Amino acid sequence: MKTKILKIAFSLLLATGLTSLVVFATLESANRKVESINITITDAENSLFLNPARVRTHLDAYGPLVGILEDKLPLSDLHDHLMLIPSVRRASIYPTLSGELNIILTQKQPQVRVHPEQGPDFYIDELGLAMPLDPVNSARVPIIHAKDINEASIGIEFLEKVGNDKFWASLIDQIIIQPTGDIKLLPRLGSPIYIGSGQDVNEQKKNLITFYREQVQTGNLKNYSRIDLSYHNQVIATKYAHLN
Q1: Distance (Å, rounded) from C-alpha 106 to C-alpha 89?
Q2: Are residues 185 and 199 in the same domain?
Q3: In a domain, 5, yes or no
Q4: How many CB atoms lie under 10 A from the CB of residue 66?
Q5: pLDDT tens digit string along 23-43?
Q6: Quick one: 120 and 221 in the same domain?
Q7: Please, are residues 88 and 42 in contact by the beta-carbon 8 Å criterion?
Q8: Closest Cα to residue 145, out of 179, 170, 169, 168?
Q9: How far is 25 from 144, CA to CA, in rounded Å?
Q10: 216 in a domain, yes or no?
Q11: Distances in Å between the alpha carbon of 214 and those of 169, 173, 194?
């Protein structure tokens, strides 16, 4: 019985102590002002469109934050304001006991750049959503020429098939989606490559490498105006007209 009473008394003391701490913390925050702002960009090396200076400029448009009492901080409104930055994927904001306001931002990651038939270019991010170009920096990603974002998905599907393959990554510069839905690659060097649609990209890679090796050995690679891989297990190369 005595042990039970002691347990109850200890629980009451603990609850009272926690309540006192909460009240004290609340009173402290009511008297604590924001002294400084710390901005962190996650994966900063791969986040060309975000940096602390540009974020501070965006915050200046919101209004002064330093000097505001912590319990008066409009955290929800501030979060919404930061999410207006076109390249921001996530935003986290919290004050510290030292009076510092921490802002942690994560950038959207462009996967491709789309050059549509009408309107300005735009990126497609890692979630498959449209993302406007940045006014200062540009991402080194493949360019897809397509009617619109829906047609561009054909090129994205091809890129997903080849994945992180080093051969395709070093080869592909631009992708053209033709009216038929077929794919035409513009490599960084050499002739256009017609991929077609519905082909085995691993088989196409093997055939293309074999063709390249043969033509490099003979010095004839520069003689071809187009390379067609759209036929099963074949490479059909067309020479420039003046060489026929």
Answers
A1: 5
A2: yes
A3: no
A4: 11
A5: 333 435 457 899 999 999 999
A6: yes
A7: no
A8: 179
A9: 54
A10: yes
A11: 21, 23, 19
Domain assignment present for residue 51? The answer is yes
Q: Is the pLDDT of residue 126 over 90?
A: yes
Q: What is the pTM of this model?
A: 0.80
**φ, ψ for residue 186, nearest 5 deg:** -105, 105
- Residue 106 in contact with residue 127, Cβ under 8 Å? no
Query: Which domain range does residue 200 map to?
Result: 110-243
Last residue of a domain, one of 73, 107, 141: 107
What three-state secondary structure class fits 54?
helix
Tell me, yes or no, whether 122 and 194 share the same domain: yes
The string of DSSP letters for 202-220 reads HHHHHHHHHHHHHHHHHT-
Pairing of strands 143-146, 193-196: unpaired
Instruction: Name the maximum alpha-carbon separation found in the chain.
Output: 106
3-state secondary structure of 70: helix
DSSP state of 44: G
**For range 52-59, the mean pLDDT:** 95
Segment 77-107, tens digit of pLDDT = 999 999 999 999 999 999 999 999 999 999 9
How far apart are alpha carbons 67 and 33 in whole angstroms?
A: 5
How buried is residue 133: exposed, middle or buried, by Cβ count under 10 Å (0-12/13-18/19+)? middle
- 44 and 162, same structural domain? no
Residue 218, domain CATH: 3.40.50.11690
In angstroms, the CA 63 to CA 236 distance is: 63
Q: How many domains does the chain have?
A: 2
